[in-house]
Structures are given as C-alpha cells and as structure tokens.
User: What shape does this take?
Amino acid sequence: MSDLNKQDWVCGKCGTLNSEGNFCCECGEPKPATPAVPVVPAPQAAPKEAPKESEEDKKNANLLCIFSLLCMFAAPGIAGIVMKVAEVIFYGGLEGIVTTICGTFAGFGWIAGIVLMIMVRVKYKDNTFGKVLMWLYIALAIIAVIIGMIVLFTVIACLNECNRGMW
Assistant: This one.
C-alpha cells in the first residue's frame, strides 16, 4: 500500500478515511475546510508465535502419557491376573472379596489414566503423544458404548423371547 497522500482526510462525523473527493464516501459529510491532523495508520502487530515446547516439557508430557497408558491398560491386566490366581487359591472362599478389590483397582486405574491424559492435554497443549492418547481414549469410549448397546439390545431380545415362550 502507498503512504497517505496530502489529500487524505478523515470524516469528522463517521471517522471514515477518504482518499479523494470533497465529500465522505461513507456518510456524505463535506470535507472539512481546515486540514485535519494527518492520519497515520496504526502499526500492524506481529503475529505471536506459539511458544515452542521445551525438551523438558516434552519429556514430562511423554512421561505422564506413559503413566496414563500403564494405568489404563496395565492396572486392569494386573487385576485380572490376581483374580485368576485368587480363583485357583481361594476357590469357594475369599475369591469374591479378592475379585471385588481387583475390580475396584482396575476401575481406579482407568480413571487415573483418563485424568493423567487430561492433565497432559491441559498443561502441554501441543504435545503430540497427548493428542494421540486423547483420540485413542475417545475411540475406546465409543467402542465401549457400541458394545454396551449391542449387549443391552441382545439381553432385551433374549428377555422378549423368554417371555413369549413362557406364556
């Protein structure tokens, strides 16, 4: 763009910058008789660059993501192994208590995994591992909902079949 000409003027009524003519191109107000204060365009602010993720931040975010994966998948796996061992050792005895404790441990593992992933996404927004982990957990949640709906509809269909046979 060219610099402002001596002929440029600002309308006193609407503030429009006019480059030619004796009337405002926006509202039709006449050009002032006395020269107005020269209009100097405001300097354009340079676009802010997103702060780069430091190596320490990347390391911390990746470590949290690994802990998240361990909580999400290793905790239920360990709980399953302990339940199988308890089934063999405590057959008919404490098996139910051990199963309840292990199930609770697995549930808290899933919750901890999701919380850690959310912490990564909030604190380290640009971390790629955190983004991939978020989409993985979203996909797992969608799959779980679909499987839950299939099971629910299957149970409902079975109950309907049973009721028809009993009447």
